Amino acid sequence: MGMKRQRSEKLFKEAERCFPGGVNSPVRAFKAVGGHPLFIKRASGSRICDEDGNEFIDYVCSWGPLILGHAHPRVLDALREALEYGTTFGAPTEKETTLAMLIRNAMPSIEELRFVNSGTEAVMSSLRLARAFTGRDKVIKFAGCYHGHSDGLLVKAGSGVATIGLPDSPGVPSSYARNTLTARYNDIGSVDRIFNANKNSIAAVIVEPVCANMGVIPPDSGFLESLRALTESHGSLLVFDEVITGFRLAPGGAQALYRVTPDLTCLGKIIGGGLPVGAYGGRKDIMDMIAPSGPVYQAGTLSGNPIAMTAGIATLQALAETGVYENLEKFAATLQEGLCQAAAKNEVPVRVNRAGSIMTLFFTESPVHDYESAIVSDTRRFSAFFRHMLHQGIYLPPSQFEAMFLSTAHAEADIGATVNAALAALQAVQSELR
Ligand SMILES: *Cc1c(COP(=O)(O)O)cnc(C)c1O
């Protein structure tokens, strides 16, 4: 286990003096798996290199945006060219419309959209809009779904179903949290009960159509269709948070794959190609309520800035080439199968959930279909697995409850090396934690 870490350790110590916990986003801190984070110096394709010169096959891919892998030449070339023209103007540019068209063509439910700077902002704004459009205050979300860090959405399950929302974070006023009701993912009855207990007061149901923030959990057959029917019959809006799944599962996202049309869609990650971008959009009659068309205020100094638009355009254009999603699917399926076999050989009980090129290896025996079945996973085993993988040059998301992301830069040899590493790692985990 002789990985050099001196520089990462030193840089982390310095960072700890500047930032809470030494990081600018909590998931980076390795808290869930123990130890300190690696400081990354550079990356290319499927590989990242840390400050000590260690190289890894990367399955974080910046948590989703880098579906083309790191430093894709096409994205970098476009960015270099764009930089010469200036970085932001605070005035409309052609690039905003170009990227918007690429998105609309892939996702016909989006008639109009608005660019923002993060997924958090997209979701927050879409719910403000949903509330304004319906004249209602309450929103239903699902336990374990993450929709960014805005106040009203830092709420998961209380016990039982139609519970009064309890804030997940201090600092969230209970008066906000009270308007967020929590249902169980893949349990349409839990949604139905909340609707019946809150007649004419639910503005929207927001959902990750495929969950990726409690580990990957695909929707059971009929779940999204039932959400569509329920929201319609109660006069509420259906909001798909496709910040991860948009252009990940298919160009048209989960809504294309499962053929369910939401009223509003939130996007982020891939559409920014590695730069900060979010977007929300949907039905024109709803979107027309946004200022300056309508009275719902939402603005942004750097929204739609030409550099971010450039990276997004280059990424979506590269994704439009034939065979991209087929190849991602093929490699991801091979990896999933390899991980399952590696676990079986070592008699480690696991479930590998996958949707397209995102997957999670859960250390649990039973199927994982909602938050409750996810959190019973053995996080001690996961942490050991994570460390053994890292020492063999495989950089996994440092939490049991995150997705592994594949990119088009991951080659067959990467997958093979990963499966071999998993075989050894799972053997070590099993002998350590027997
Ligand atoms: C990442 C994510 C967000 C938040 O996006 P940020 O750009 O991190 O603010 C929202 N929803 C989902 C489903 C996400 O995965």
| CATH level-3 fold name of the largest domain | Aspartate Aminotransferase, domain 2
**Spans with pLDDT under 50 lasting ≥5 residues?**
157-164
Q: What would CATH call the architecture of the largest domain?
A: 3-Layer(aba) Sandwich
Tertiary shape: globular
Quote the average pLDDT: 95
CATH superfamily of the largest domain: Type I PLP-dependent aspartate aminotransferase-like (Major domain)
Percent of residues in beta strands? 5-15%
CATH class of the largest domain: Alpha Beta
Q: What would you report as the Rg, rounded to the nearest angstrom?
A: 21 Å
DSSP helix fraction: 25-40%
Number of helices: 14
* Sheet with the most strands: spatial strand order: 4-10-9-8-7-5-6
Structure at a glance:
The protein is an alpha/beta fold and 434 residues long.
Please characterize this protein's 3D structure.
The relative contact order is 0.16. The chain is an alpha/beta fold and 434 residues long. The chain folds into two domains: 6-71 and 323-433, Alpha-Beta Complex (Aspartate Aminotransferase, domain 1); 73-319, Aspartate Aminotransferase, domain 2. Strands 4-10-9-8-7-5-6 form a seven-stranded mixed sheet, sandwiched between helices. Strands 1-2-3-13 form a four-stranded mixed sheet. Helix 5 (174-177) links the parallel strand 5 (138-142) and strand 6. Helix 2 packs antiparallel against helix 10, helix 6 runs parallel beside helix 7 (223-233) and helix 13 (379-391) crosses helix 14. Helices cover 38% and strands 14% of the residues. The chain contains 14 helices and 14 strands. The chain has helices spanning 6-18, 73-83, 94-106, 119-134, 174-177, 188-197, 223-233, 253-258, 284-287, 306-319, 324-345, 371-375, 379-391, 412-432, and strands at 40-44, 47-50, 55-58, 112-116, 138-142, 180-183, 202-207, 237-241, 264-267, 278-282, 351-355, 358-362, 394-395, 404-405. The protein is globular. Pyridoxal-5'-phosphate binds next to helix 4.
